[in-house]
Amino acid sequence: MRTREIREMIKSRYREMAEEQTRDYYLTHDYYNGRTLQRPYQPYVAEPNPEEEIAKRDHAYLNDLLSPKPTLGNAFAEALAGFNGKTDDSDLRCSDSTLKPAEDLLVRIIEWHERYTCEGIAALLKEDEERLSTANIDALQNAYPNEPVIVQNIIIFAAFWLRSPRSYKANNEASMLDHVFAHYPTPALLRKCWKESATPENVQWLMIYFAYTQGTSLKALTQYFGWKTESPKLWHFLPESRGHFSPKEAVLYQEVMRLGGSEDFYEILMDHPSYQPDVLSSNEQSRNFWYSVVRWFIKHDEDVVGTEITRILTWARHQYTEFMRERKAFTMNGRSLSKVIRSANDYHRAVLAHQAELARRAEARRVAAIERAEQQRQEDVERRERAYTYYDDEHENYTWKKHNWDKQYHSHKGVWTFRELVSSQELNLEANIMEHCVYDYDYGCYMGESAIVSLRLDDERCITIELEPTSGDLIQAMGQYNRDPEKDELDVIRKWHIEVVKCKTRPRKRPLP
User: Could you tell me which of 256, 282, 258 has the C-alpha nearest to residue 269?
Assistant: First the structure.
């Protein structure tokens, strides 16, 4: 080694030592005045997230199954299996002889789901390693060469195989899915679930798929999931739904049809984001509101037409959110046609007036900004590229302090960001994008009576949240057009409320909705 290289190595080593000493020094001394701290700073160490660890372990295990490293032992094992005549054509169900087949399947589904929730996929698949042979996995990949998600899902549910994938014949009329899992006809709409990743919600619908195709009590299984239905007839008619529906859309469609609605009315509901709730798992108040709206429109089917339907839907949802703020329930039951139409038209005019006012303010700000820019250019040429902000002096622009509730969470869907809105301008922008009336809350926020937080997924606004600043109570959480939060949105809101808001405010007086 040359002398110059030795000198450079010694210098870099001393530089590293100096950096380490500097870091250690500032852990025990004040950065500005050099005084010794009574208590040293603690380096930030991220707390382990059990859910992320389980997800990483599951992902790694599935990758090893789908793309294993070739070894001599694997080759010998497959050769010996073929030599011994192990074709895996026999029934693969692991049954309890003391139970009826339907009861046995229900017990296995519940046990599997509980272990999946607590331990993850990898722990379950290790018990099915004999089934997950290279020949079976190759057969699945040959059947679905361009659909790796389906292959992964079939592997994940190896515990429910009825027949081995390697015994599937390509000229068979049945698909690989039917060959492996089906004993009874398969509902077309549930086939779509196999093309979706194994999220907790999708896993539940795949459990419903097994209940249909292998035969067990849907009533008992849905009770285990905590799903609520107004009528058990839903599960009889659900398989008849169109194949292009998602399970959630099919449930809404069948409920509208069961109550006497038309397909045209269903399409109108689907065009309104706030009328697409998960009626199986939504809270009681949201479900009752949805059913009351559907029944009201079916009752007045011939009297309400055209744009009146959309106006009434928008007004009813607005009333529902305003009643929720007061901890009251809003319903359409018993409301007269004339009063509803009059109230909906009044609200529509108020919304148009507000939008016109916002447009006028925007135009006033634009003109004022042009005049200000011209004046500034004349005064100082060097500042012509600077960005200007201006707010119309005719209208009060309130500002208020933050509560330090901003937070980010990382998930498989992206980055969830909670950002508190602290000015009238921010509330106006939120209301404009989300199409609701949060712009009216600026004075309440200024007076300390409310706090508004915007939930975003990868910078796209999803949910607007209102809280009571003193106690930290969650008053309401609504999406665009005042829709209810989805399950994943509600989960991350609950987590943030417990970990961030609850820790920085007094104990809550009221439970979360």
Answer: 256
